[in-house]
Amino acid sequence: MLGVMEEREFDVIVIGAGPAGEVCAGRLAERELEVALVEQHLVGGECSFYACMPSKALLRPGELLAEVARVPGARETVSGELDAQVVLRRRDEVIHGRDDSGQLPWLEERGIELFRGQAAFEAERSVRVGSELMRARRAVVVATGTAAAIPPIDGLGEARPWTNREATTAAEVPERLLVLGGGVVGVELAQAWSSLGSSVTVVEAEERILFNEEPFASAEISAGLDRAGVELRTGARAAGASRGEGGRVSLELEGGERLRGDELLVAVGRRPRTEELFLERAGAEAGAAGYLEVDDQLRVGGSDWLYAIGDVNGRSLLTHMGKYQARIAADHILGEDVTATGDKGGSPRVVFTDPQLAAVGLTLAKAQEQGIEARAVDVSTAGNAGASFHGRDMPGTSRIVVDEQRHVIVGASFVGPEVAESLHAATIAVVAEVPLERLWHAVPAFPTRNEVWLKLLETYGL
Amino acid sequence: MLGVMEEREFDVIVIGAGPAGEVCAGRLAERELEVALVEQHLVGGECSFYACMPSKALLRPGELLAEVARVPGARETVSGELDAQVVLRRRDEVIHGRDDSGQLPWLEERGIELFRGQAAFEAERSVRVGSELMRARRAVVVATGTAAAIPPIDGLGEARPWTNREATTAAEVPERLLVLGGGVVGVELAQAWSSLGSSVTVVEAEERILFNEEPFASAEISAGLDRAGVELRTGARAAGASRGEGGRVSLELEGGERLRGDELLVAVGRRPRTEELFLERAGAEAGAAGYLEVDDQLRVGGSDWLYAIGDVNGRSLLTHMGKYQARIAADHILGEDVTATGDKGGSPRVVFTDPQLAAVGLTLAKAQEQGIEARAVDVSTAGNAGASFHGRDMPGTSRIVVDEQRHVIVGASFVGPEVAESLHAATIAVVAEVPLERLWHAVPAFPTRNEVWLKLLETYGL
After folding, report:
1. Within this chain, do residues B304 and B367 fall inside the same structural domain, yes or no?
2. What is the domain range of residue A379?
3. Which of A126, A460, B141, B313 could share a disulfide with B308, CB 3.0–4.6 Å?
4. Parallel, antiparallel or unpaired: strands B249-253 and A132-142
C-alpha cells in the first residue's frame, strides 16, 4: 500500500451498482448522506443488462401472440410469424446496447460519487478501488450480486457454454439450443428462444423442472413448454460436454446419450461474487457456498458497519427482494428501527413462461416441513368468467396454502397466462396476515380473473 | 284469486335469476334448503346476456390488438383489421345466442325449482307466478335487478333508442352511433363499437365523463377514446330526439345543434325493476327512485323475512357486489351472524376501456366529503420497469387515497391498459385496512407493473 495515498471519506460506501446497490445508495443520498458507489462492470447490474430485463424483452412478444391466438376476432388479424430480428432489436433497446450511461444522471442528481473498478477491503470500513482509497464513516454495503455457477462437469468450461449473459444478449438465434438446468433461468430462456425459432432441449437432473415450486406448477409449465415445442429431459444428469470442430456443442448424459446443439446454456444456479473483496481484511468471512450471512437488518455477522444486500447474501435471489433489502439496510443505517420481514416464508416470484407461475410464501410441502397445520385449496385458474376473455381455455391451477390454526394464507401459487399482475393481492394477504374471514369481504371485480379468489375461498368453505 | 289454488311451500323464494339471485339460490340449496327461483326472462340475467359478458366480448379483441400495437416484434405480425363479424360471432357464443338452457343443469344439480314468469306478491311470504302460488317458510329474496332508465326527453321513446340490451346484442355495426350518457355503460360501448368500425359520438351532460371517478381518470379515458376516434361532447344536454324516414336518428342538443346517427344508445342510468311485484301486499315499499332500501343483512325495512340483493336495492350496481350481497343474505337466512362490509366506502369497479380504470373505495373528493383527513398520492402507472413490456408508453395515473389519521388506504384508482387484474391488491388493502407500514413489506415482483405499489408508497414517504 502506498504510504502517501489520500484516503477519501464518505458516510457510506456501496459496493455494486445493481438494483440493490443503486436503490440503497439512492435512498441514503436522498437523506443527504455522502455516498460512494463502486461498480466493476455496468451500472444497473446483472438484472438490467443480462437477466430480468432482456429476458422479459425476449419473452413478451411471444407471450402476447400466444394470447392473441386464444382470442377470436383478434387472432384472424395475425398473418406473420414473430420477427426474431425485431425482437432482438427491441431487446437491445431495453438493455441500451449494454451502455450504462443512461443510468449516470440518476446518480449525479443525487450527488452519488461513482467509482469504476473492482473494490477490495483494506481494513474495516476501508475500501480500495484501483488507486482510490476510501473510508466509510457509517457503513459499507456489499451488493456485488451473483454470477452463473459452472458445475464441475467434464469439459464444460472448455466448451465455452452460454451463461445467462450470453443467453440474454445473443445477436443470433441458435438453430438448436441445449439448456442445462430447469430452474427459472433455464425455463424462461428456453421459452424465449423457442418462441424465436430455436429447437430447445432442457436437461434437468431432478424429476421435474422448477423443483422448489408446487408440483402442479412444474407439470403445467412443462406442458406449456411441450406445446411450444421445447423438449424436456428431466431426471437426466450431464456427464460431460465438448465443443467440436464445426463449433457445435455436445452434451453427454449419464448413461451415454449425447445431445447436440449450436449453443449450450448453463443455468444450474448462481455463485456469490465475493472472491476478490478480501473480506477477511474487514474481519468478515463468507458463509455457506460463499454467501455473506446477514441478520434481519442486513448486517454481516453482527457487525455494526458492514451490510450485505441482494443476491450476495443468499437470502432471496430476486431483484425486487434485493431492492427491498436495500431499503431496509438504508433505513437502518439512517438510524431507523427496521426489520426485514417481507422475505420471510417465501418471497413473491414470477416465472415468465406461458403459462406463467406467480407465487408467494410457502408451498404446501414447505409449510408442512415447517410444522404448520397446512391445508391446500386448489381451483382452476380459468374457472371464472374473466378467464373466458383473457388466457382463455389455458389449463392452470391456482392454490392457496392456509395455516389452519391461524386462519391466514401462508402461500399462494397461480399458474396461467399473464398471472403476474395478480400476484400482489396474494403478497399483501400473506405478508399482512389478513384473516380469511376478512379476505372474504374483499370482493373481486366481475368479470376479471381476480374472481379466482372467490372460488378459492368458496372452495375453502367460506 | 282462485279459492282452490294450491299453495306450494319452499324454504326460500328468490325472485330474479340474475347473478345475485342465482348465487343466493345456489348457496341456500347447497345447504339443503328448498329453494324456488323465479325468472321472467333469461336465467343468468342482464349481466350474462346484455351487459358485462357481451360487452367484454366486444371489447377484448380491440383491447388486445391495441396492446399488440405497443409491442415491437409482435405488432409486425398483424396485417389485418379487426374482423367485426368474427367478434360479433364470438359475442354470440359468449351469450349463447340468448339461450339460457346451459344454465339449467346448474340449478337442477342443486335441486332448485325454476318458475318462469313474472312474480307478484300476494301477501307476506306469499308469491304468485302465473297460476302458481307459493309460500316461503323462511324468506323471500328480491333480486330483480334494474333496467335502463329512459329519461323524459322529447321524442326519445318514439325514436326507438338502443338500451344496453340492443347495444350488446346488435347483429350489425352501425355506421354512426350516438351515445347519450358518458358513464360506464356509455364509454365501454363507445369504445367497443368504435373498435368494430362505428363512428361514435358520446353526449354527456356533466363537464366530464365518468363523473363519479377521479378527475384524472375522466381525463385519461377521454384521451384514450379520443385516440380511438370517439367524439366526446361533454357539458352537452339532449333536448329532443327523433327517428326519421330513412331510419336514422337525430339527437337535438340544448342550443339547437343536431347530431345524426344510425342508432342512439341511451345510457343515462338505471331504474329498479320493482313495479310489477306488488310490494305493498308484502307490507313493503320501494324507497327513493324505486330502490328497495336494505340494512347490512340485506333485509328490507327491518323485515325478518324479506331481503333484497343486487341492483334492485341500489346499494352498488355491480354484478360482483350483487353476488357478494347474495352470499351475505344467504348466510343470514341460514342463521349466521354476518354483515355486509365489503361494499362500504366504494365497491371495487373496472371500466373496460383502453386505458382501463380499476378503482376501489373512495375518491379523494368523496373521502374529503366524509370528513376524512385524506391525502392523495399519485404516480404514473407506466413509471416502472414492468410497464416497459406491458401497456408500454400509455399515459395513465395511479392514485391511492390515504386516511392520514388511521394510516390506511381508503381508496385507489389505477388508469392504464389492462389494469383490471391489479385491482384486487388494492381491494384487499382497503377492505382489510392494512396499515401502510405493513403494506411496505409486501414487495411487488420485478419486473411487473405491480411495482406501481412501490412507487406509490415511496412517494407517500415510506
Report:
1. no
2. 355-460
3. B313
4. unpaired
